[in-house]
Amino acid sequence: MVVLNKIYTRTGDAGETALGNGTRVAKHDARVNAYGTVDETNATVGLARLHAKGDMDAQLSMIQNDLFDLGADLCRPDMEKDAEADYASLRMTDAQVARLETEIDAMNAALAPLRSFILPGGSALAAHLHLCRTVSRRAERLAVELAAVEAVNDAAVKYLNRLSDWFFVAARIANDNGADDVLWVPGANR
Questions:
Q1: How high is the pLDDT of residue 85?
Q2: What angle do CA 171, 93, 19 make, to 5 degrees?
């Protein structure tokens, strides 16, 4: 159980922050950038949920919870030391990735194949989902960059990769199952 009695601590005033294992690092550290962008993704999902209803809202709610799990995973380095930690680290799982894949397949079954790239937009929900997609892609790039120099849970990177695909397909669903997608017209303004 998390208890936050005092919001400011002044411990970050010198430009450092604590990771999940207590290690202090610069606020511009690659790990902090990765999980910070996951948090930013979560905020964009909150905006999208203002326009979502029913199953879409329920799925977005699950994604928001997953994104907190993902942030917890990324903020805790030293995966090889998980077994000797005082408490179990929260790590993303392949089951969370598989759930996204199942949802993507179900949504995609209702859509006609794309014959053009689409522009972000259409309905308010679709526009917000495209924003979610682009921010989650940035989070993925940062997680991959981190994984090039430090250990990162493979399921965390896979989840981010599927998540941006989920947002893309969900945006098409939000655009009346693709009927209101805004198609790119190459060279239209020459």
A1: 56
A2: 95
Instruction: State the Cα–Cα distance between residues 28 and 34, nearest whole angstrom.
Output: 10
Which residues have CB under 8 Å from 106's CB, separation 6+?
Answer: none
Taking residue 89's Cβ as centre, other Cβ atoms within 10 Å add up to 18
Residue with tokens 């693709």: 178
> For residues 167 and 163, what is the distance between their CA atoms, to the nearest angstrom?
6
What is the distance between the alpha carbons of residues 13 and 45, in angstroms, rounded to a whole number?
29
- Structure-token match 């399921």, residue found: 155
Q: Which two tokens stand for residue 58?
A: 């329920």
For residue 51, the model assigns a pLDDT of: 98
Residues of the chain below pLDDT 50:
none
- pLDDT tens for each residue of 93-134: 999 999 999 999 999 999 999 989 999 999 999 999 999 999
Cα 143 from Cα 49, distance rounded (Å): 25
Prediction pTM value: 0.91
Residue 119, H or E segment: strand 118-119
CATH number corresponding to 27-78+92-183: 1.20.1200.10
